[in-house]
Amino acid sequence: MTPELIASLTIFALAVFLGFELISRVPTLLHTPLMSGTNAIHGIVLVGAMLIAGSADSTLEQVLAFVAVVFATVNVVGGFLVTDRMLHMFKGKRPEGPPEDEVP
């Protein structure tokens, strides 16, 4: 194992620990506004994953980059869906579906 790999794994482990600690201490009412604010960050992660995928040399790098692109895409789309649903709740609109008086 090279010193660069050890340093990268250490930074990754610290980032995971710090992220978990920060998110677990956020009150429930703030999760959705934070999600809408972090969609931009997830977009940057998606762009970075695509750049890495484009410059990948080995098969392992290509597979890991593809997995990163998939996870980042799911994260961005999910964040926008949750934010859109929350905005509809604030506007007083109901989600799409039949009106309650028309349900048999």
How would you briefly describe this protein structure?
The protein is mainly α and 104 residues long. It has three helices and no strands.
Please provide a written account of the structure.
With 104 residues, the protein is mostly helical. The chain has a domain at 29-94. Helix content is 76%, strand content 0%. The chain has 3 helices and no strands. The chain has helices spanning 3-24, 31-54, 59-91. The radius of gyration is 19 Å and the shape is flat. The termini are far apart. The model has no long low-confidence stretch (mean pLDDT 79).
Strands, total number: 0
Number of helices: 3
Q: Please state roughly what percent of the residues sit in beta strands, choosing from under 5%, 5-15%, 15-25%, 25-35%, 35-45% or over 45%.
A: under 5%
Biggest sheet overview: none
Oligomer category: single chain
Specify Rg, calculated over alpha carbons. 19 Å
The helix content, as a percent range, equals over 70%
Distance between the termini: 65 Å
Structural class: mainly alpha
Task: Give start-end ranges of low-pLDDT stretches.
Answer: none
Order of helices and strands: HHH
Overall average residue pLDDT:
79
* C-alpha geometry: flat
Provide the fold topology.
Layout: H1 3-24, H2 31-54, H3 59-91
Helix pairs in contact: 2-3
Q: Features of this protein?
A:
single chain, 104 residues, mainly alpha, 3 helices, 76% helix, 0% strand, flat
